[in-house]
Write a structure and sequence with these properties.
mainly alpha; elongated
Length: 130
């Protein structure tokens, strides 16, 4: 095991937050954690880490949607009370902002959860006997 705690003795793994924000492999730091907006690639092109062995699930989606929804509603009500824009303008502002915030937030949250699972050696929901 090297100083950074990588059992393979390879490159120093990035911090989980950095791996999530940049979308890089939590083991080697190679780009390509995602194959779509919020869909993981099957494996790392640099070190071969199998991303399918991690169980990220849909928890981040529900959590983020509630938080972002509350934030957007608060901002929309504030805007409505401040300048009273027409409904079409409110929709033109908040629908794209909400979609971008959910997609970007989900990507970061899923990447962070995968990186934390990698760091904690959690795989496939099963506990090891060791």
């Amino acid at each position: 095991m090297n100083e950074a705690g990588d059992p393979a003795g390879g490159p120093t793994p990035p911090a989980p937050a950095i791996a999530a924000i940049k979308g890089v492999c939590p083991r080697c730091g190679a780009p390509g954690l995602f194959a779509g907006i919020a869909r993981f690639a099957s494996h790392c092109r640099g070190c071969g880490l199998d991303y399918a062995s991690f169980n990220v699930g849909d928890g981040p989606a529900a959590f983020l949607t509630l938080i972002i929804g509350a934030l957007v509603v608060g901002l929309a009500v504030t805007l409505q009370l401040a300048i009273d824009p027409p409904l079409w303008l409110q929709m033109a502002i908040w629908i794209p902002i909400t979609a971008i915030m959910v997609a970007g937030g989900l990507r970061i949250a899923k990447g962070l959860l995968l990186a934390l699972e990698y760091r904690g050696a959690a795989r496939d929901g099963r506990l090891s006997d060791a």
